[in-house]
Amino acid sequence: MTKAQFQVFASARAAAKAAAAHIADMVRARPQTVLGLATGKTFVPVYAALVELARERGLSFAQASSFNLDEYVGLPAGHPASFRRYMEENFFRHVDLPPDRALLPEAGGDAATACLAYEQAIAARGGIDVQLLGIGRNGHIGFNEPGSAFDGRTQVADLTPSTIAANTSDFPPGEVPPPQAITMGIGTILEAREIVLVATGDGKAEALARSFRDKPNTDCPGSALQSHGHVTVFCDDAAYAGLKG
Ligand code: F6R
What we know:
Largest sheet: 7 strands, parallel
Low-confidence stretches: none
Strand order of the largest sheet: 1-10-9-6-2-3-5
CATH architecture: 3-Layer(aba) Sandwich
Number of helices: 8
Bound molecules: fructose -6-phosphate
Shape: globular
Number of strands: 10
Strand content: 15-25%
Mean pLDDT: 96
Structural class: alpha/beta
Number of domains: 1
């Protein structure tokens, strides 16, 4: 059985607020915290809660830095569905995190160069202190889809049809997500000193159960987290359903 700690809440909103409060505590205790950030629907209320803490409680990110997990390959800068745009709208433009220290993979140019540069930038900052993660219905973490190696580094990944379908609603009508993204690899993710996974809704129950109940297996990328010594899962009752009892 996994060493991960579970914090289970009655609602998705409560789980998101608790995850945000945990991150805020870390940043207050160590203002230079290196954050690993995630996008997706799960994190909209997490960033909203962090922005509220910044506005109302003076939480400052002025000395922090951040690295996002992933970015689509080939979307023009400023595309409404790019993860850069998501981060600007949900978080960056509302807080004092210095823009030159808020990084996402550079998915517009040569991908191999961008992947290596991203790994080097993370190392130059001393590694990631806390990595925020969501999880896909198929168990993906970042864009590491089933079958990804547990020691993978930042790389170009092919998205599965189910991930493309799940993310199509983020795109303007008539557009679909690009077939590829640059993502931190599972090996990169596991090097973070702490991991905070947020999972809400019954659509995530099976992925959470396969990640933490079953033996680690590359068919479920989330199960790689069982080998990490400091994982906290913030979830609601619905997502926890498959792990009960
Ligand atoms: C996002 C990411 C993905 C999402 C996952 C869940 O940066 O890397 O792994 O965390 O697809 O997405 P939502 O929260 O939209 O269900």
